[in-house]
TrEMBL record, chain A:
Superkingdom to which the source organism belongs: Bacteria
UniProt source species: Caldithrix abyssi
InterPro entries xrefs: NIF_FeS_clus_asmbl_NifU_N (IPR002871)
Organism ancestry: Bacteria, Pseudomonadati, Calditrichota, Calditrichia, Calditrichales
The name this protein goes by in its record: SUF system NifU family Fe-S cluster assembly protein
Domain (NIF system FeS cluster assembly NifU N-terminal) ranges: 9-130
Length: 155, 420
């Protein structure tokens, strides 16, 4: 098998797929938004509790492929306790990384931690939408969008 | 008990040399990720034999001109080829006349044509159209649009856990309000071959016409429209060795004659004044604009090829291949197959444990196996099954038992990889 494929599904992704973190409904969320990929049926709800610009809590619910679910799970772990500005920074990094715009993602291990586990997505263009769906949903939600996020919007 | 049954399915009980036919398909020699291509996405589109590719090339190299207009030599050749394709299609499905063959862009446009040109003339507020719950979106959405516009109501024949239709419900909803039944001949999700003759007989007893979605059946079964007695049938060339962008609406003469035009433009007119026009004869009345001429040449070559292989042979071989695949698949722990109708074709939808179809199909692709993952343009079926998606393997006569074995091995590897 292609080693890049094996790398994509490395331990972190398999682990977060099997045991997603922060996988729950949040009753007192300040932000809540649905995201879906109509082509493959991935569907998530992202919950955020933001107070004084700090993301006090973040969780998600839904179903989808291993890449999208692990991405949501890792995202919730990373964002908890961060400011909205920091979330924006992670979002931008993640988006650039999975679309192949960052040359040596492994150099960002210190600052970006487990996000770097998704660097392999860049090798598989068809999976970029899987990895970014939770992030786009979170991003739009933080920016006050009430519109469901879909990977297949008409541009 | 199972082992006795499984021993009865031998790898080959009929004489059919798929390998010989494979030689005609250049793409089947492709490698993907360094591995031989195992193409099991035939319900989406089939591959094309050299004969079809050559027909397209030859048309553009030798015959290219517009049809029905030019007096010159090329115009005559293009017209002869285009109209010749119509005759081949008519013969292939047992239509009485080639006038009953309308070329469209595909199944979807053929159904939209009926919804528009027939539906908007004959379906009124309060009328009902009966569909099944296993329709492809292409045989659902056109009727939704029509029903919404004219105030008609859609009724549905449900399917059971085997993926077969519930005739009790059908009998209940078939009424004097029913204006049309539009139904698939073979399900692209379950593989079910619906008892179409029975449906048509029941419909005709009440004077209700039936449109058949033949996208999955015409490529795989001998289909005779006179024998079935369907009023309309829609199908696509690209699912039966032909090029994309061309398909067929078959209609009974009387139905076609009563229909409004579909699109307006050149080709479909007889005489035109500034404020009015008269329509060309059937079938040209429904073919506005320059048609897919090259596609028709390729389509004719595809039909020639299928006739040479023999539709009965194709059906028998695919049934053996499909039975073999299903039996082997069910031996894998965690395998769920959706649809177990007694009469079925070679589209097999499944899930393997809790591996998401997107992950599984990506894994299989890495091994050279092309399958489809998703809702297969049938979100309503997925919703009823309470699943987001399935993986689907679908076969054609050029697939081999060895390819099935390889596919099964890769499913087992996927189970291990994803830790089932």
């Amino acid at each position: 098998m292609d080693s890049e494929f094996r790398e994509l599904y490395q331990e972190i992704i398999m682990d977060h797929n099997r045991k997603p973190r922060n996988f729950r409904k949040m009753e007192d969320a300040t932000h809540r938004l649905d995201g879906m990929n109509p082509l493959c049926g991935d569907q998530y709800t992202i919950y955020l509790k933001v107070k004084d610009d700090i993301i006090e809590d973040v969780s998600f619910e839904g179903s989808g492929c291993a890449i999208s679910k692990a991405s949501a799970s890792v995202m919730t772990n990373v964002l908890k306790g961060k400011t909205v500005q920091e979330a924006e920074k992670y979002f931008n990094f993640f988006h650039k990384m999975v679309t192949g715009e960052i040359d040596h993602p492994e150099e960002y291990l210190d600052t970006m931690g487990k996000l770097v586990a998704f660097a392999g997505v860049a090798e598989f263009p068809v999976r970029v939408k899987c990895a970014t769906l939770p992030w786009h949903t979170m991003h739009n939600s933080l920016h006050g969008s009430q519109d469901k996020v879909t990977t297949e919007e008409n541009n | 008990m199972m082992s006795v049954a499984s021993m009865n399915v031998s790898k080959k009980t009929i004489e059919f040399d798929a390998r010989k036919y494979r030689e005609d398909f250049p793409i089947l020699k492709e490698t993907v990720h360094g591995l031989p291509l195992v193409y099991l996405d035939n319900a989406a589109t089939t591959q094309k034999p050299r004969q079809v590719i050559d027909a397209l090339t030859s048309y553009y190299e030798h015959d290219n001109a517009n049809v029905h207009r030019a007096i010159h030599q090329l115009g005559e050749r293009a017209t002869a080829g285009y109209e010749g394709a119509r005759k081949r299609v008519a013969r292939f499905i047992g239509a009485k006349s080639e006038k009953q063959i309308i070329f469209t862009r595909g199944t979807t446009e053929a159904i939209n044509l009926v919804a528009s040109a027939w539906g908007r003339k004959f379906v009124e507020a309060g009328d009902e159209i009966i569909l099944s719950e296993m329709e492809h979106h292409s045989n659902l959405i056109p009727w939704q649009l029509l029903a919404k516009d004219v105030g008609a109501r859609l009724r549905f024949i449900p399917f059971d856990e085997n993926g077969t239709l519930d005739f009790n419900v059908f009998e209940q909803i078939l009424s004097s309000k029913t204006k049309l039944i539009a139904i698939t001949h073979m399900s692209n999700v379950f593989g079910t071959i619906n008892p179409i003759k029975r449906i048509i007989r029941m419909a005709h007893d009440r004077g209700v016409p039936v449109l058949l979605d033949g996208a999955q059946s015409v490529p795989h079964l001998p289909v005779d429209v006179e024998h079935l007695d369907c009023d309309f049938m829609a199908f696509s060339a690209h699912k039966m060795l032909g090029p994309t962008g061309i398909g067929v609406l078959y209609g009974k003469m009387q139905q076609l004659e009563n229909m409004n035009p579909y699109q307006g433009g050149g080709e479909m007119i007889n005489s035109v004044w500034l404020d009015s026009a008269t329509w060309a004869e059937i079938p040209h009345k429904f073919e506005a604009g320059t048609p897919n001429i090259a596609g028709a040449f390729g389509f004719a070559a595809a039909i020639d090829y299928l006739e040479q292989v023999g539709m009965e042979n194709i059906t028998l071989y695919e049934q053996e291949l499909t039975s073999y695949a299903i039996e082997k698949m069910l031996e894998i722990p965690g395998m769920t197959i959706y649809g177990s109708a007694p009469e079925r074709g070679g589209a097999v939808s499944f899930n393997l444990g809790d591996i998401h179809p997107h992950d599984l199909s990506h894994f299989l692709d890495q091994q050279g196996v092309a399958v489809r993952a998703g809702h297969h343009c049938a979100q309503t079926i997925m919703r009823k099954l309470n699943i987001a998606a399935t993986t689907r393997a679908s076969f054609y006569f050029y697939n081999t038992f060895e390819e099935i074995d390889y596919f099964i091995d890769q499913l087992i590897k996927a189970s291990e990889f994803f830790g089932l």
